[in-house]
Design brief:
There is one protein chain. 44% of the residues lie in helices and 20% in strands. The chain is α+β, with helices and mostly antiparallel strands. It has four domains: 149 residues, no CATH class; 159 residues, 6 Propeller (Neuraminidase); 108 residues, Serine Threonine Protein Phosphatase 5, Tetratricopeptide repeat, CATH 1.25.40.10; 201 residues, no CATH class. Helix 5 packs antiparallel against helix 6, helix 14 packs parallel to helix 16 and helix 15 crosses helix 19. The longest helix is centred in the last third of the chain and has 46 residues.
């Protein structure tokens, strides 16, 4: 019996252990990279993993290795074509990454670009590149997939050299093809080394048609000023401004071209990636999130576009150029999946697997990424979105939100579905979460239109009722004078100093000259009152942040820092007052600092009249009536500017010409003061860091 008990106990132990092993969650190794997207503030924020690195190919199935491969292409049958630059050949792999054929080593010199259309393989061969007489070529092969031998399957169709054109001949053009793309009409789009006029458009007969999709010239304001000043000076040599050359090109199945340009960027925002039509019009924003060192782009199947940088950062964008995912990065020499030493090309197959070439001498590999369920849902939703099947996409976007509830594009997709389904209130809520002001405006317009249609008679009655009340009050007040008590009450309040002075400040609106004189001669306002007015401006500014209509409010209240907002509003005003007083002192102005301070603040009084109405109407208008919002702000600022001009004139007793000069010098002095403040700030930071480092070092030594 004891033996049976031991056996039963042993079996029970195995069963429990097996159950625990089976039910325990599988622990997977963390990826070597993180995945990011762009939030509503155009900042990178971490999101769910969109693609997982699954494996790396360093040795091909025939035992050979790639050598500095610069480009690849995947066709509709998932055949991969690689321009194996260092080995001077083309490699064809099947969908399992098994070598099918290698060829071209007897002809190619430096193949840098490859493109395939209807089984025709176009290879851009740079050539030796050592002399002007040595030019590159475009090789065209036909690939017959039904044949079994290399000789039967691969046929050299043509070798194209410099395209024929009188324009190119007169320009001393040297043909050095770097990359190539080909459309269904076999028109070639070639990136040529040193060509800054754009992409070469060459027809099937190798005749140059035109330049295409050139970049704009970026000229700074200072460079423009220099050109104006030194335009006729032969002794001054100014740097020539030439557009950055396009470095790569690809196209999708809808006729759009995607060009890549490598040029410096500020804050990773620019137009280094463009989506252009045959006319060269760019459909992407010139301030989209993009890296400076993009080397290749690839068009996906749902209107998306993939890019890769030389440092190994991969990015996916939607059809409008919005960043969906960013992942990958620079490796350190080991074989960590998902990181690169020197990425050179990117492509995807029919299953949305991503393939990336690493052409570094110590890597020479192909890395493969597989989309996660999260990315699969996003792509499914994008496909429905691009087909304008917004209602059908609602459920898919909701599934996406189960993976990442902070994804703005999902809320926008759901909102568009509700909008098409005429569920405007629900759409409004989704657009607000996504911070999509344009579509929010459309939904609100529909809601407002329905409300006005249903309540037009009530609105008419309200207007007539208000008119009747005003007429009645006006008529009865002439007989009973009951509004006189209101005036007397206001008069009693004005006996107190602060209310009286605040009331006086509104005199600047109608009679600025008289108000300036009374401030100087009769002391009708004080420093305290001016500071109270500035405090009122700050309160009004905060109310604008809180209550301006969503469509016109570009500030997120939850992320507002009061101290920062106070500096943003009050610091420029104070700097202007100080700068104006300093310049007026040098120009023999008659105004004291007190008069300058109070009269400058007095010029801001129209803000209290107009801005509240602007805030109120912003809640009832859409982008179709945005001119009302803009016009209100323009009128307010123009009014303030005019008062400021006349107040300076009257405060310092200047002529119109002297006032203009004083105004210009005040602006220049403001710039100087700001520069000095920045320098002082930086010096304080450096001294603080220096002292902190010394204290830390002393503590550590002890």
């Amino acid at each position: 019996m004891n033996h049976k008990k031991y056996v039963l106990l042993l079996l029970l132990t195995f069963i429990i252990f097996g159950a625990i092993t089976f039910l325990s969650p599988t622990v997977e190794a963390a990826s070597a990279y993180k995945t990011y997207t762009v939030d509503r503030n155009h900042q990178l924020s971490e999101t769910n993993e969109a693609y997982e690195a699954v494996y790396m190919v360093r040795t091909l199935s025939d035992g050979s290795k790639l050598n500095g491969a610069k480009d690849m292409f995947i066709d509709s049958d998932d055949y991969m074509y690689i321009a194996d630059t260092g080995n001077k050949r083309v490699v064809i792999l099947d969908s399992d990454l098994q070598v099918v054929y290698t060829f071209g080593s007897d002809l190619l010199i430096k193949p840098l670009g490859i493109f395939v259309v209807e089984d025709y393989i176009y290879v851009a061969d740079y050539g030796v590149g050592q002399a002007n007489t040595d030019i590159g070529s475009i090789y065209i092969w036909h690939f017959d997939k039904s044949k079994d031998t290399l000789e039967e399957a691969i046929e050299l169709v043509d070798v194209l050299s410099t395209p024929s054109s009188p324009i190119l001949e007169t320009d001393g053009f040297i043909f050095r093809p770097l990359k190539i793309a080909v459309d269904q009409n076999f028109t070639m789009y070639v990136i040529n080394e040193g060509t800054t006029s754009g992409v070469l458009m060459i027809n099937a007969s190798n005749r140059f048609i035109d330049y295409f999709a050139s970049n704009n010239i970026d000229i700074t304001l200072w460079e423009r000023i220099q050109r104006i000043i030194y335009a006729n000076n032969d002794n001054v040599y100014l740097t020539k401004n030439i557009p950055a050359p396009v470095t790569n090109i690809t196209l999708d199945n809808k006729g759009y071209f995607y060009t890549v340009t490598q040029k410096p960027l500020d804050s990773a925002l620019g137009d280094n990636l463009k989506k252009v039509n045959i006319g060269g019009t760019n459909y992407f924003s010139e301030e989209m999130f993009v890296y400076a060192d993009i080397v290749d782009a690839w068009a996906g199947d749902v209107g998306n576009i993939y890019t890769v940088t030389s440092a190994g950062f991969l990015a996916e964008y939607d059809s409008q150029g919005n960043l969906l995912f960013l992942w990958g990065g620079k490796g350190t020499g080991n074989d960590k999946l998902g990181l690169f030493l020197s990425a050179s090309s990117i492509a995807t197959d029919s299953n949305n697997n991503i393939y990336v070439l690493d052409d570094h001498t110590s890597r020479n590999s192909i890395q493969v990424f597989r989309e996660t369920p999260f990315a699969f849902q996003v792509h499914e939703a994008l496909d429905l979105f691009n087909q304008a099947r917004y209602v059908e996409s609602i459920e898919v976007w909701q599934e996406v939100l189960r993976y990442n509830s902070m994804l703005d594009m999902a809320y926008r997709g759901i909102g568009l579905g509700y909008l098409m389904n005429e569920e405007y209130e629900l759409a409004l809520e989704q657009f607000k979460i996504a911070y999509d002001q344009a579509d929010y405006s459309e939904a609100y317009w529909e809601i407002r239109n329905l409300w006005m249609t249903q309540n037009v008679s009530m609105l008419l009655y309200v207007v007539l009722g208000l008119a009747a009340v005003l007429i009645t009050v006006n008529l009865t007040n002439k007989k009973y004078h009951y509004l006189t008590h209101v005036g007397e009450t206001i008069g009693q309040v004005k006996k107190y100093r602060i209310p009286r002075e605040i009331s006086f400040m509104f005199r600047f609106i109608k009679h600025p000259a008289d108000a300036c004189y009374e401030v100087k001669a009769k002391k009708k306002a004080s420093f305290l009152t001016a500071w109270i007015i500035l405090g009122g401006l700050f309160v009004l500014h905060i109310l604008a942040i809180l209550f301006t209509g969503f469509i016109f409010n570009n500030v997120i209240p939850e992320e507002t820092i009061l101290f920062k907002e106070s500096l943003t509003l009050l610091l420029p005003i104070l700097i202007f007052i100080i700068a104006n007083y300093l310049m007026s002192s040098l120009m023999e102005g008659e105004g004291t600092f007190k008069a300058t301070f109070i009269n400058t603040v007095g010029a801001l009084m129209p803000v209290f009249i107009i801005y509240p109405f602007v805030i109120i109407i912003s809640n009832f208008i859409t982008l179709n009536e945005a001119f009302l919002f803009s016009m209100g702000n323009v009128v307010m600022l123009a009014w303030v500017g005019i008062l400021l001009f006349f107040n300076i004139k009257e405060t310092h007793n200047y002529s119109v010409g002297q006032t203009i000069v004083n105004f210009i010098l005040t602006i220049l002095m403001m710039v100087i003061i700001i520069v000095v403040l920045i320098m002082v700030y930086l010096m304080v930071i450096q001294v603080t860091n220096f002292v902190t480092d010394i204290i830390k070092e002393v503590i550590l030594r002890e």
